[in-house]
User: Fold this.
Amino acid sequence: MVNSKIKTKIKTKITTGNRPSAEARILLAARHVFMTKGMSGARMQDIADEAGINKALLHYYFKNKERLFDVIFRDASSVFFPKITGIIESTDTLEKKLEKFCCAYIDMMLQNPFLPLFVLTEANKRPAEFRKKFWRTREQVFQKFAEEISTEAEKKKELNINPAHLFLNMISMCIFPFIAKPIWQMSTGMNDKEFREFIDERKKIIPQLIIASLKKKCL
Amino acid sequence: MVNSKIKTKIKTKITTGNRPSAEARILLAARHVFMTKGMSGARMQDIADEAGINKALLHYYFKNKERLFDVIFRDASSVFFPKITGIIESTDTLEKKLEKFCCAYIDMMLQNPFLPLFVLTEANKRPAEFRKKFWRTREQVFQKFAEEISTEAEKKKELNINPAHLFLNMISMCIFPFIAKPIWQMSTGMNDKEFREFIDERKKIIPQLIIASLKKKCL
DNA sequence: GTCTATACTCGGATAGAC
DNA sequence: GTCTATCCGAGTATAGAC
Assistant:
């Protein structure tokens, strides 16, 4: 499996034995190291160690650090920018849709706690490169959500809400706690278990709050 | 001015002439480079260039990269974790206090747009070091806010609100847009001017939303 | 205090054996 | 496909002149 073809989606291929292939182990290790240290802080040696191979093999599979990073980052982006078509197109009420979205999104971040800071940091560091290499128009989650909310608002004559603010409020409240986790825990004294429970509570609180903001009286 | 004494607060000292001293220029340049590139991405050469001096002088003033970083980061933290005693102790209503807080905090970030991502990233990368070297108990903004909200809630018999969620919601909505700025602009097509106006709107929207969440019906 | 020149270290990348 | 050994550029840090 040489690096000649760039894969668009990472799959952890398994060899005939029970141990993941070297390539799969590299990807797993690279994901972990890049996510925790960032592009500039990550060391090829760390990735090699964690994958249980040596540096030379990294270059055999992925040419250089940048290419390896790109594979990881592209995969990370595709997870971070969710596909909400499924939720949007369902026949649920808006309330139910928001609830499903928050719940699914928070669950995803519980499984990938470093993802938000990783994607946002790297997107900030080189915005031009990000736009060119990683930005997919299809990932414009916001557009669909905005339409959905606008039509919903029109139906109910609650036109005083700005979909942009509403959507940004929602994702802010979902994502930010994961970015601020260490500081928040220092500040409140929460341990990991308490933090986890606290986050779980937010799956209900956030959509409720958003729905409340739709009422004329609130905004 | 040798590096023997560590300053707790950065002041841009001006020499007798009209050009800032070398030390002041270094601090200014270092702040900019560290904030945009992060600790691991920053290059001493870049800082020297931007300050209009050479690398050797950096080491003359600040011994090494880590010490220079520490000075910048300590200063950044003290700005990022706001002193809210002034707002808390005023005789304003809770509503007014929240409004003042959001407004002041958003204004601060408008002036230091890279601050949030910088502080949060570095705090995440080395949480133990962060706690030891930079965390100040006095910065536990949250505690005071929580007490304030609790007493307010008791007065109005609106005990169904959790101050932790309320506070986290508020700062999430204030801070997150600055972290997500490039992605948000790509996603919505906003230019810098529009983004600025959009942010200004939030100074009112966020406290309104928070106040609304205090009502029993909303949460 | 400020510079030039240089030493040293780290880390990404390659050559080549097996 | 995987390894050892090595190269080489980049980047931090220091020596020493002025």
In short: Residues 43-45, 55-56, 58-59, 63-65 of chain A lie near DNA strand C (CB under 10 Å from a C1'). Chain A touches chain B through 54 residues (CB under 8 Å).
